[in-house]
Write a structure and sequence with these properties.
Largest sheet: 8 strands, mixed
Shape: globular
Strand content: 15-25%
Structural class: alpha/beta
Number of strands: 10
Order of helices and strands: HHHHHEHEEEEEEHEHEE
Distance between the termini: 28 Å
Number of domains: 1
Radius of gyration: 18 Å
Number of helices: 8
Length: 261
């Protein structure tokens, strides 16, 4: 299986919106409704009650036919809204940096690089699910995060972005207190089993990783945030990749998170 970290791939934001104009229109509709109702779009519960959000969710391909779509795709809408208001900060984690951060914690404390963002993982490197559960295992494309003024971190896994089928999968995680982020650095999320161990057939031989608990997501994010804030990694601002290649490149500028020298 071919891993990929050469450039940022097409993102959930680009799959959800035809253009930046559509994204801005969605943001404006939410802001207008929230101001009229006195609702706070940072509060997920309030966000999900908005008519403009319902309308957006119904416009997503396949969402209307999925059980629990309002909560799952409502979480996606929540992150897309805040991602847009923060000017679409996209980060790409390289394979070398990912291995380094899975195998040990970096120095420093985790500090968010921004209130919202999308962390794209190397393609086909991290996988969801447990083989014994019988559920299909999906490649994780990336992780949305949004921090609220009340000190909560909302996160959402995005899976299943593939050229052979439309759409994507989303896995919303429970919000967590940002004050707990330093604890996540050394969290043993699976207890007696090694965190990030792959259950995908052949995954261990290929050097792949698995994510089967929310704790592993928080642990990975905390280590990445600490890696960024302590200047240990090599951060490079990149322009969108040009050319018609597979996988399809993103049209967004991004920051590459590489292994430090």
């Amino acid at each position: 299986m071919s891993l990929h970290d050469a450039y940022a791939r097409i993102t959930p934001w680009e799959l959800a919106f035809v253009s930046e104009k559509d994204a801005r229109k969605f943001v404006s509709s939410v802001q207008e409704e929230s101001e009229g109702r006195g609702a706070d779009p940072q509060m997920l519960e309030s966000f999900l009650t908005m008519a403009s959000v319902d309308q957006f969710i119904l416009g997503l391909g396949g969402a209307e036919s999925e059980e629990g779509a309002s909560m799952r795709f409502g979480g996606l809408a929540f992150h897309l809204y805040h991602f847009t208001t923060e000017s679409c900060p996209l980060y790409l984690l390289t394979v070398d940096a990912a291995r380094y951060l899975v195998e040990g914690r970096p120095l420093g404390s985790p500090a968010l690089p921004g209130a919202s963002g999308y962390l794209q993982l190397p393609q086909h490197f991290f996988w969801t699910g447990v083989a014994s559960s019988g559920a299909s295992q999906e490649s994780i494309d990336g992780i949305f995060w949004t921090a609220t003024s009340g000190g909560l971190l909302h996160t959402l896994l995005v899976t299943g972005i593939r050229p052979d089928r439309p759409g994507l999968g989303v896995i919303p995680l429970p919000p967590a207190p940002l004050n707990d982020a330093p604890i996540w650095l050394d969290l043993e999320a699976r207890g007696t089993e090694d965190d990030f161990s792959a259950s995908l057939p052949g995954g261990e031989l290929d050097g792949l990783y698995g994510v089967s608990t929310a704790g592993e997501v928080f642990k990975l994010l905390a280590r990445i945030f600490a890696y960024i804030s302590s200047d240990q990694g090599r951060l490079e601002a990149e322009a969108p990749h040009e050319g018609e290649q597979a996988p399809e490149p993103s049209c967004l500028p991004y920051t590459r998170i590489g292994r430090g020298v």
